[in-house]
Amino acid sequence: MPRDDLSKAVGLNSVNANLARLVGPVLAGVIILHWPIIWIFVLNGAVTILFVTLLLRLKVSPPPAPAARQVFHAEVTEGIGHVWCTPAVRLILLSMFCGGALVCAAVELIPAIAAKSFGEDVALPC
Question: What is the 3-state secondary structure (H, E, C) of 62-115?
């Protein structure tokens, strides 16, 4: 895919995913109201078969020749250097790291906080 079209493709993929999140449950709800639930699975299977068929018929151009590769250690060092020298990327990665670490810790502590707040006999849904 040409580099100029990459952002358009990512945007189109995002629209497709969000549309599926919206339309899928609505369509399933309508089917459940009017027909037996088995028809949801039949429709899902038919759409999957259609999608696989379309993917198999898709003509894909061969990928461009790969650029000369460096040693793994050199590529990692180059990537770290790029992050270090680009303040915006450095800030984004630092924010993701801190946010991920804090969210992970909070999620793991939720059962202990619930037990302390509501007593030891708290029933967890998991």
Answer: CCCCCCCCCCHHHHHHHHHHHHHHCHHHHHHHHHHHHHHHHHHHHHHHHHHHHH
